[in-house]
Every structure is written in structure tokens, then in C-alpha cells.
Amino acid sequence: MSSSLFNGWEVVIGLEVHVQLATRSKIFSGASTATGDEPNRHASLIDLGMPGTLPVVNKEAIRNAVRFGLAINAEIGRRSVFERKNYFYPDLPKGYQTTQLAEPIVGPGEVVIQLDDGSEKTVRIHHAHLEEDAGKSLHEDFHGMTGIDLNRAGTPLIEIVSEPDMGNAEEAVAFARKLHAIVTSIGVCDGDMSQGNMRFDVNISVRRPGEPLGTRTETKNLNSFRFMEKAIKLEVERQIDVLEDGGKIVQETRLYNGDTNTARSMRTKEDANDYRYFPCPDLLPVLVSEEDIEALRAEMPELPDARKARFMDAYQLSDYDAALLASSMATARYFETAADHGGDAKLAANWVMGDLAAKLNAEDLDIAHCPVSAEHLGQLIQRIKDGTISSKIAKQVFEACWAGDGSPDQIIESQGLKQMSDSGELEKIIDQIIADSPAQVEDYRNADDAKRKKKIGYFVGQVMKATQGKANPQQVNELLQEKL
Amino acid sequence: MHNKTLTELKAGLQAKDFSARELTEHFLDRIQARDGELNSFITVTREQALQQADAADQAIAAGDHRLLTGLPIAHKDIFCTEGVRTSCGSRMLDNFIAPYTATVVEKMAGEGAIMLGKTNMDEFAMGSSNETSFYGPVRNPWDTERVPGGSSGGAAASLAARLAPGATGTDTGGSIRQPAALNGVTGLKPTYGRVSRWGMIAFASSLDQAGPLGLSAADCALMLQAMAGHDDKDSTCLNEPVDDYLGGLDQNLDGLRIGVPEEFFPDNLDGAIADNARAAMGELEKQGAKLVKVSLPSIKLSVPAYYVIAPAEASSNLSRFDGVRFGYRCEDPKDLEDLYKRSRSEGFGAEVKRRILVGTYALSAGYYDAYYKRAQQVRRLIRDDFARAFKEVDVLMGPTSPETAFKLGAKADDPVNMYMADVFTIAVNLAGLPALSMPSGFIDGLPAGTQVIGNYFQEGRILNVAHRYQLATDWHQRIPGAFQ
């Protein structure tokens, strides 16, 4: 058990994860799942809940759910049943959500997560079920009224429900990241969390070791791993504070605000709806045959763990580097493209995990939306390798490329950043500097070898200044040593 | 012209004895002149009907004769018809112009049928007397102080009064067969899944089935031929080949085994009703059929099971009528809850509200197992009873309704007594079987009907039985005195 105690309290965390399936059409209608269009453009008769309309299940959504089940070694529900979850809400057009309850498509499975100390832990999956998403209520710009956008209504989701197997925020985030890696690797979800395409609800309770489970709360609206980690820590602290002050935890749903790092109660158990689930009479049970399962298993793409092993083997990457780069399909694909174009996997790995990751993090961007394409990063790496630019200039080129100034080659050309390779010209500059710095030359010549290594830095600096950084530092060093 | 069957009118059109326009105008004029006495239509689509008639005349001139070319049909106002109000007999949809057309209507139009208008019905098909319609009760043309039955009361009354030569209806618990019996016309409820439910406003999805009402079994066969068949838009519509219903009508009844369930002749049944059904079976015996005593012990549970399942599904199906996207919306709602509460309270009538409440209760946490689940178990028992019976016999027969048309208002304050009107028809819906009601005589001047129940997809067989009966009898040709 890697989970530690907090002031003698044991933390118990379970996740419910909504994953938007990357199908072209909705789960029960032929309308497009495209986002970003004007409201209700993709609201078909069925999505509007028009009287007399009927759902027809999207087979690709079924296949995607089975793919996920296979990826987590789950039992696949050979017969799964859609049910109606009844409640009134303006962006829920039919007055019920079509979902699965008693007979879900994906049964118990498991996900292995890697922890920072290098150890592994298995998180059990209780089940995963298919359901439809609701629309959106728009509260702005309607003169006190509410607008309803049903473009998202009917978008297929799988809801993945874990067992309460996580003992702290780090484990929960590792689990969430691993799920992200799995669903993006098998292509059932684009993983874009900024668009809400993966959403996490966290169930948290605390107890003294050995005692029965404490009352849990559910925190919603966690649309980034960073927020998830912060929100869990916040809630764990709150629960421990309440209990240590002699209070009681109220079973409730809490809404986290990432901007202020605060959370508030949204509704308590007393407000909970009676959803009056019953099997949807408009849909037949979904039957999945052994042949269907085997066909999907046969075409299963590479899973994150296999990819990590391949990265270690093919690119000679460390365990840590390979795990990180294999952690999401978008990152892995980016890395592989950059490495292939750049011809240097180690350099590509360093860039992706270093400068690129820092920049994405700083701007809170997903790698899928990175303004520097993997091909361009590859080109940049190539120019470092072939000596066209130095690593230092490369950072400058990268920034320009990020800012949209063009490809690395265009930027190097237009901004005149090409490394000075003409040794004749460089020698002239060096001669001039030596001539202009008699005192420093004298000082250098009187020093011993060890000290010379430090003192040469002055001359290197002067050369770089004179060449605006375009000289190859190694060449400069060699020429200086020779001439001094 | 209005005393002819569809089959006769079809021959007349083909022989160019009259044009489709003449025929259509004749019925439109008759509706205009006489429907004030009956209230069988909610909407008459005169202009559209004449346009369709002209198109039919062109088709006939071009030699394009389809199943229903030029034949005027009245559609129950439960079927969505693009550009035409589709009210479902409710204030809730008084302002609802459907944006699309139901498959049944579309298929019949595709075979050349002309829509005369939309017939009156019990609100959301909930009723057995047509008294729950927002548009007022329909009157029985045999005695305008009496009800026509329901919920397809407008369809049956308009046929009996010869205001339309053919009609569509829907049957959830007897809504085609019971009004057919009370008006002296023939009505067929097909096997569940034989006819598409797309565009038919749902009452209880697992029981609802559309079917034809006509002046003869042959007319029902003609209409069913056009209505039946698979529809990609309805997952519960089965992909079974459609039989040649017309071709099978004449086959003789030698050796036909007619099952007579003792439960259809309980001790407390009105003797005249029992005698009437026995006489009908006696006629078939003369034609070579054999009567076999059978027992369906579980069907005594069918009314209570039905009045759990149907309201449960209805409570969910009718949630979409919330005043948000279409239909009735209350004046000046002060907030969301007020919008919901008042729109639904004001938009729905008493019987609909009663069933929503019953259904909501039956699905509630803590009651689901005792009501809904138990009712589904009863449903399986009933299905098994029928399956056992059909191992011994070809069809089952008995009275359609335990009584002839009752007086308007006679049962208005006694819903349970009203529900018993469907005691012989409901089990058929719970089992999903096909059944028809055919006119089999008169009791005190009011029509009585006999029900013929077939095994799954045996519509052809029961139409054949009814047709042979109608060749030997003339009950189906009787016309109410006032509407000669």
C-alpha cells in the first residue's frame, strides 16, 4: 500500500470519468458531433426530443466501448441494456438521459498505474457504461432568459467508474493520466480536456485506519489534471479539518473552481432526484458476439505500456522518459514525428519533455493544440544536429516558431540566425578581439591550465557578442585556444 | 360512393368510374356536412387532400396504380404530419405543427393514399371512450348519446359514418379493436414490431402499435400491406418479410383450429356478448373450423400489469412535454420550476395526469420491484400462456369488448370501471401478438365485435379468418341509420 496517512487519516478516492467518444455522429441520431458551430445546428429531430422520434444506437459507439473494455482487460457485457434516467432539466430534451445501469457494456476490469517512486499499483474498474451527453444551458446574452444549445445533446460518452482504490491525489492523477493515455491510444477519444472531452468526478472520504469507510463527497468539474490534484488536496484537508473539529461530513456534490482553488457545495443527498431508472423500451438490448470481440481485439492499436517498452527499446530512452512520452497518444505521436523528422530521438525527447512541455504548461495548452508542429520541431532538431544553429539559438528559433513566424528554416533564414561556419571570417573577429584585449590576454597566458578554462570564457563571450551568437561555440573555443 | 369499401373504390378508380378528386371531394364534403354531429376529426386537410387527389389522378392517367392510389384515408392525430397540426388530442400539442411525417403516413402516401385529415382521439391515446380529448368527445354514429370507444374513437366513428373509407389507428391496450367493435367496423392491431412507430407520438413504447381500421378485413389487408415493413428509424420494428395479405384472404378454413379461452367467457360476462361471440365462432365452424377449449390462466392479471407498465412508460415518454422546446407553455413563468409545473398542469388533462402520477409512483425507488418488475414478470407469464395455446391452435377468439357502446359520461368518474373495458384486448398488447376485431352482430341496436388473435406475424391468417367470416355475413356492411 503506497498511500500514506495524513495526520493519521487514511484517504479513500474513487473516480467517475466521462469520456466523450470520437464518433462522427451522435449515439442515437445521425447528427454530427462537431463542436464550435452555432447553437443547435447539430440538433436533429431526435436530439430535440421531438414527439414521435425514436433512437437508433450508433454501432461505432458500441465498438468504441468494447475497445475500451478490451484495453482494460474487462469482461465485455455480451448483453447490455440501455435504461432511462428520468429527471427534468432544460438541456435534457427528452426529460430522461438514456444510459446503462444494471447491465453495462463493460464489466469489471483493471488499470495499472505507475507511481513517482517507480512502483506500480492496480486500480480496479467497477464497470463502464455507455450513455448520451446532455446539451448546454447558456446564461449570457439572453436578457435574463436562458438559451439552450443542443449541439452536444446525444454525444456518446462512456462513464468509467473505478473502485475506491486510490489513497491520495497523486495516485488519482496517475490513474486519470493512465486512462487518458489508454483512451487516446486506442483512438476512442481525442482526450482534449479543455473541450470537456474527458471529465473527472472524484469521490473522496477519509477514515482512521481500520475503521469503516467514511461519508464521501463528490467533487465535479475537474477539467485538468492540475485542478484535480489541487481539488483533491483541498477536499481532503477540509474533511480532516471538519472531523478533527468534531464535525460530520455531509454527503454532497461539490463544485470546484480552479481559478480560486475553492469548492462549494452544489447539492446534498437530500436534494437528490429519484431517477426512476427503467429499461428503455425504444431500444433493444445490445448484443456483442464472441466474433465481434475477437475482431476488435485483433485490430487493437498499441497500448501505452507496450508503447513505453517500444520507446525504451527503439529509441534507447530511459524508463522515465519513455513512460512520460508514451503517456498520451498525442504526446507519443508528437514525439515520434519530431524524432523521425529530426533524426535524433534523445534530442527530440529532451525538447518534448523540456522546453515544449514547459511552454505548454505555462500557457495551459494541450499538446494537440501546440502551435509548433512536430514536423517543425523535427526540423529544428535537424538544424541543431547539422550545426546550422546552436542550442542557444535554437531556443530563440523555437520561440519565434511558437509565435507563428514560420518554419524553423524560414526563421533562421529571415532572421539571419545561421551559425557562422566560415572560419576565415571568425578568425578575423577573434584576432580583433585578442588585439583589443591586451590585459585579458596577458592574464590568460599567465594562468595555469585549470584557470585558463575559466578565463577563456571572457573571450568566448566577446566573440559571441560580436557574432550575435551565431558562431559555433566549439569552433570558437578551439580557435581561441590555438591563437592564445 | 361513400358506402363502398376501399377495395371497391380502388376498382372504381382504376375503371375510371370516378376520379380521385371526385372521390376526395365527396368525402371532404361529407365530413363538412356531417362531422358536426360526431366530432370525429380534429383537423381536415382539404387543400392538401385535393392536391394529393390531383396527383393521384395524374398517376392513374399515366397508368401508375399503386396499392392505395387515389384512396382517401383519415389518420389518427397521433401520427406526425409535416406542416399539419399534430395534437394527440391534447391541449399540450394544440399549437404543435409537426416538422416531419410519420413512417406510416409516409408509406401510405408513397402508395398513393390521400390524407383527408386527422381524427380525434383520447388525449395521448389514454382512454377507452374518446372522452379525454381536449377537442371534446367523439359521438358514436349508431347512437350519438353513446361513446365510440377509444382511443382511436375518431377513426372508428368516421368510418362507421362513412366520412372516410379507411383510417389508421394505434393500439396500446385495445385502442383500435375496442372502438372498431363499438362502431361496427374492422380494426387490426399488428404484431408488435410489424409497423414502424417512427413519428407516432408515444404513449407506452413497448405496447404501442399502429394498424388499420376499415369497412372490411380485405380493406384492412390492403392498408396493412402499405403500412407494414422494416424501418431503420425504429429499432423495435422487426426485419421480417411482409406477407401477401391480400393474396391470402380467400383460403378456406378447413381444419382451422380456433382456440376458445375460457377466460374470455367469465361467469360475470354479459350473456348477450358471450352469445354473440359464440355465434361468430359457430359460423366459422360451419366453414370447416374446429373449436378447441384452451386456458390462458395468467390473463386475469393483464389489466393490473398493464396499468403499471403503460403508465410507467408514459410517465417517462411524456416528460419531454415541458414547455421548453414545443407545445404548450404557461403564461409568464416566474422561474424554471414554475414553467414546468404550470405548463404541465395546464397542458395535460386529468386522465393523462392520473397516469403520469401512477407511472411515476410505480417506478419510484422502493416501489419498482413491487410494481414495475412484478408487472414485467406477469407479462412473461401471459406471453408463455399464449405460446402454449398456439401450440394447440391457429387462432384464438372471443368477444372484443365486454360491452357495447356505453353512454357518454357513464364511466367518467370511475377510471377502474373504464379500464375494464379493455379486459379482453390488453393481454394481446402485453404479449405483442396481432389481433383484429370484426363486426359480429348487434345487441339492442348497437354493434358488437369479435376478436381474432393470431400468433406472431400471422396477420395474414387472422385477416383470412375475418374475410371468410365476412363473405358469409353482412354485419360489416350495416350502416348507421342516420348516416346512410
From TrEMBL, chain A:
Coiled coil: none annotated. Residues 333-484 form the Asn/Gln amidotransferase domain. PROSITE patterns: GATB. It catalyses: L-glutamyl-tRNA(Gln) + L-glutamine + ATP + H2O = L-glutaminyl-tRNA(Gln) + L-glutamate + ADP + phosphate + H(+); L-aspartyl-tRNA(Asn) + L-glutamine + ATP + H2O = L-asparaginyl-tRNA(Asn) + L-glutamate + ADP + phosphate + 2 H(+). Keywords: ATP-binding, Ligase, Nucleotide-binding, Protein biosynthesis. It is an enzyme of class 6 (ligase). Its EC number is 6.3.5.-. The keyword Transferase does not apply. It holds the Pfam family GatB_Yqey. Belongs to the GatB/GatE family. GatB subfamily. Allows the formation of correctly charged Asn-tRNA(Asn) or Gln-tRNA(Gln) through the transamidation of misacylated Asp-tRNA(Asn) or Glu-tRNA(Gln) in organisms which lack either or both of asparaginyl-tRNA or glutaminyl-tRNA synthetases. The reaction takes place in the presence of glutamine and ATP through an activated phospho-Asp-tRNA(Asn) or phospho-Glu-tRNA(Gln). Heterotrimer of A, B and C subunits. This is Aspartyl/glutamyl-tRNA(Asn/Gln) amidotransferase subunit B. It comes from Alloalcanivorax gelatiniphagus. The gene is gatB.
From TrEMBL, chain B:
It comes from the Bacteria. Its EC number is 6.3.5.7. Gene3D superfamilies: Amidase signature (AS) domain. One of its GO terms (molecular function) is glutaminyl-tRNA synthase (glutamine-hydrolyzing) activity. Residues 22-463 form the Amidase domain. Signal peptide: none annotated. The keyword Nucleotide-binding applies. It catalyses: L-glutamyl-tRNA(Gln) + L-glutamine + ATP + H2O = L-glutaminyl-tRNA(Gln) + L-glutamate + ADP + phosphate + H(+). Keywords: ATP-binding, Ligase, Nucleotide-binding, Protein biosynthesis. The active site is at K76 (charge relay system), S151 (charge relay system), S175 (acyl-ester intermediate). Heterotrimer of A, B and C subunits. Allows the formation of correctly charged Gln-tRNA(Gln) through the transamidation of misacylated Glu-tRNA(Gln) in organisms which lack glutaminyl-tRNA synthetase. The reaction takes place in the presence of glutamine and ATP through an activated gamma-phospho-Glu-tRNA(Gln). Belongs to the amidase family. GatA subfamily. NCBIfam families: gatA (TIGR00132). This is Glutamyl-tRNA(Gln) amidotransferase subunit A. The gene is gatA.
